[in-house]
Amino acid sequence: MIERKEQADSAASFEAEALTHLDAVYRFALRLSGAPDQAEDLVQETFLRAYKSWGQYTQGTAGKSWLFTICRNVFLRGRERHQRHDEIVTETVGRDGPGLNPVNPVWVSVLGVDPEGDFFESIVDERIMQAIDDLPEEYRMAVVLSDLEGLPYADIAEMMEVPVGTVKSRIFRGRRQLQNVLYDYAVEMGYIAARAGTDE
Amino acid sequence: MSFFDKLRSLFTGVAPDGGASPSAMIPCEEALSVVHEFLDGELGGVSHEQVKAHFDACQRCYPHLHLEEVFREVIRRAGTGQRAPAGLKVKLMELLAEADA
User: Fold this and answer.
1) What is the pTM of this model?
2) What are the pLDDT digits (tens) for A89-120?
3) In a domain, A140, yes or no
4) What CATH number is associated with residue A132?
């Protein structure tokens, strides 16, 4: 009887604290796997594992990060079995950070013709998501966790098992790549006039 | 304040908050190098106020900050509108009930 009550309490607290992140975990799974059916499988496996480990989770702590960590691990383990041929990104990060030109040369071009950045509004969400999906996996994961889900660098670093400097580098480079891809697309579609010297 | 109002205030040399004078500002290079950390709320060696004072007063750097902000907003909006399929929660609840059985 007591066991049954504990089980019911556990299921209720899991629903209240973990299942509330279902949309976010699904979005993350979708960005990782690239396909809705695979994302659903990934989400189911993630929540099943989370449920089985619910006793070890400290309630009230960063539940979303915890679920993302499980989701990522399930995805990586699955990928070892069904290798998804993504570009593998390796980078070294020095003390000085990502080492990018702090000014995106594309912004210089944009400022000459569309200083408010209105061209972004012309790009449909599907095209933006496609550009995110096309990022190399490590950049994609970092950008999604930071820009879509709002996780702090430290949580992303812990999740991806890399130093914070590497997370920053991946986020910055991922964003830069996205900006350039979306700018090129906007030029191609005539949403913004091209200016000379846009190559980085 | 609109983008153009902001630019106008920069050209007149008056910071919108009447704040730091340009001579006390951190250099452009430094402000631009931390634009991501500034927007992410993750600054390390320099304070948020120092960086903000620079972007508030610098007509060269502010437009770059503005474009970064627009870019982020567009990405966030595109990426967070997606919801899990309607039946997925039901499937999950069944799965969890099976795990309990």
Assistant:
1) 0.79
2) 544 443 334 456 778 889 989 999 999 999 99
3) yes
4) 1.10.10.10
